[in-house]
Structures are given as C-alpha cells and as structure tokens.
Amino acid sequence: MPPLSTSRIEIAGIPVAELARQFGTPAFVYDAAMIRRRLADLRQFDHVRYAEKACSNLAILVLLRRAGALVDTVSGFEIRRALAAGYKAEGKVPPIVYTADIFDTHALELVVAHNILVNCGSPDMIDQYGDLAPGREITLRINPGFGHGHSQKTNTGGPQSKHGIWHEQLPDCLLKAGQHDLSVTGLHMHIGSGTNMEHLAQVCGAMETAARQAGPSIRSISVGGGLPVVYREDDPTVDLEAYFELCDAMRKRLENTFGHQVSLEIEPGRYLVAESGYLITEIRAVKHQGANLFYLVDAGFNNLPRPILYGAYHPISIVPADGDTNRPETDVIVGGPLCESGDIFTQKDGGFVATRRLPRATVGELLVIECAGAYCSVMGSNYNSRPMAPEVLIDEGQAKLIRRRQTFEELTAGESMPDA
Predict the structure, then answer these.
(1) Beta carbons within 10 angstroms of residue 337's beta carbon
(2) Options 120, 173, 339, 376, the catalytic residue
(3) How far apart are CA 307 and CA 313, in angstroms?
(4) Quick count: other Cβ atoms within 10 Å of Cβ 171?
(5) Other Cβ atoms within 10 Å of 197 Cβ, number
C-alpha cells in the first residue's frame, strides 16, 4: 500500500476543521463506508459475528446489524446493548452469543431469561448454566494450547492465558454438559489479536481435532477473530481468500465425517472498525524539553489508551490550517494533557517514548490520531475528571452525533456527598 500521509484535510469527504468546529475536540469520528467495506471482505464465511467489545456504540451496532453481521457479547450490559440495537435474542442462527470465562450474576440472569446462546470459556460455566437451564444448547470456547498477538496482552491462547477451556479438558467438559442435559453444538477458538496466516492455520488444525473429539453434535465452528489491521504501511496482511479456503476445507472434512452441514463463522472486532475511526484533537502547546520537541494535544489516554496499555502504534496526521500539505517534517513526541508521564501517544511497548516524523505545526492546529475505531473510545475513562469524548458517524456525506460529550452532571451522577 502507499505510505500513510502525515497531513490530512478531510475525513470521509468532510473537512476535519469543519468537524472540529461542529463537534469540538477531542472527538471520535467513524467512517461508515469503511466499516461496510471491511464487513464485505468476509462475506465468504457463512456468518460474520462482530465482537462488540471493539466498539460498542449503539449506532455502530445498528449499522452492522443492518449490514448483516451477527454479534458476540462478553458482558450483561453488552447483551443489553445488542438488544437495544435491535438484535433478536433468538433465531435459527443465534443473533447474539455470550462469550466469557465467568458468569457474573447479571449476565447469568440475562442469558437464562432471554435464551441467549452461551459460549462457555470455563468448565464451571457449564455447571452454573446447566443448573438453571438444563436441556439447552451451548458452545465451548477452546484454548488450543497456543496463542499469538501483537502484544502479550492481546495473546488469548496458551497456558498463560485465562481464556477458554484447556484443550485437554474437552472430554471432561463434554461429560459435564451431558450430566446437565446440555447439547454442545459448536466450538470456538480465538488465540489473539494480530495473528498471521501461520497461526490461523494452526487454529484450523486444532479446531478440526477438537471437533472430531466432540463428535457429530457439532453443527457450527467459529474460528474467532484476530485478523491484522494495517497501522503502518509495512504491516503484514492476511490473504483472506486463502484463509477462507483453509477454513472451508477443514469444515468440509468435518461435514464428510459427521454426515451433516457445519456452519463456518468468523468473529472479527478490530478488523471491522479500527480503520474507520479517527480521534480529532487540537494542539494546545508546542514545547522543547532538551533535544525533544513535544506537541501536546487536548486528548489523552483517557480517550485512547492503546499506546499506554501495550505500546500500540497509531498513524498520526496534522491538519494544516493554511492547507499546505507539503510542510517540512521534524521529529516530534505527541502527548496529552493528563497528569501522568505515560500520557504519550508515540511510545513503544514497555513505556519507552518514541518520536514521530510529522509536519511542523503550531498551537491551535488540529492533529488526528488515525485507525482509532477499535479499543479506543470504548476503553475510555474519566481519569483526571475529564469527560468522555463525543462520537460522530459519517454516512453518505452526513456527519451525525452518535454520543454527545459527557457533561459534568453526567460524570458525577452516581456520586453522593454526606450531609455537611
């Protein structure tokens, strides 16, 4: 792909400056067309199930539902979000799946009351669900014994991961399910975010082994998510057609063995929404600290925590107020306003500060942090009592506010003070 530009004038056809004037800064902006494009990439799979945790705004969920995506939830309130966005609780193919390693009381009550399909990630979940809902169907999330991710913190497989039922415990879990009259009708594997073709092939092999062990009750398999996203121009990608062919061949072998059809699901989160998102900020200070030049902006890790969590790289661009996209570039450190030394957007894993080659800019100009649609706003916080930033969806040339900026009254609504 061509090098990512360090200057930007517009987002989805709308000038960035206009978006900033209308919605203020910092603000998240999503390009609906990009989300639909990424969903269309995966149409060869029987079902695309969106991992809601990546970006759970109701408008995003409605967009994906209307475009044909199913949804995967990981908490009781995520289930409620999906229901509020118009997803049905039940269907021939379950519109909503609850995937977790534990039940809290609220989630257990919801899945029982609404008959939400449960994807069990721990043996104890089978007992807890079976005690309340014997006779229903479940699926099992299997930890195949290996994992991979762009960071150890995004690795969801292997013995150091809390996720999934350890593959050697599958026979015991099948017996446990039988004792509660629960039918195990599907298997799921997800080994981490940022996998490559080699690791995805390993998942296919492990899935086939587990499915044969489970037997002909299996009617669906989910190969999870983890597809890579291009944050740098030299980041690797996955040949999606080749990946589908690999999964489809495995599925067909199982169908031949079981004598019935097996549906093939994929469960992307980041892949569908990451590239659609932009965080618009304003440069509020330009300062030298020894040999280092800092651009300090009005967004912090309270808005976008991926760099401080695991050294994630995001493309960054400057919006030149004079329209000059050919300004000379310089080495810059980009930081936020928080009272925390780690509030740096240009850092590497382990908290090591890095510089970024960016156009020269001045106070008052806009800076855009790109590929900010996944695990950004949804992981935001009120650290330093800063409000949650608004979210904006651009669809067919129209920019619509889909979450307003949090007010002080909303920020403190759940708090109380003792009588003076």
Answers:
(1) 18
(2) 339
(3) 7
(4) 10
(5) 15
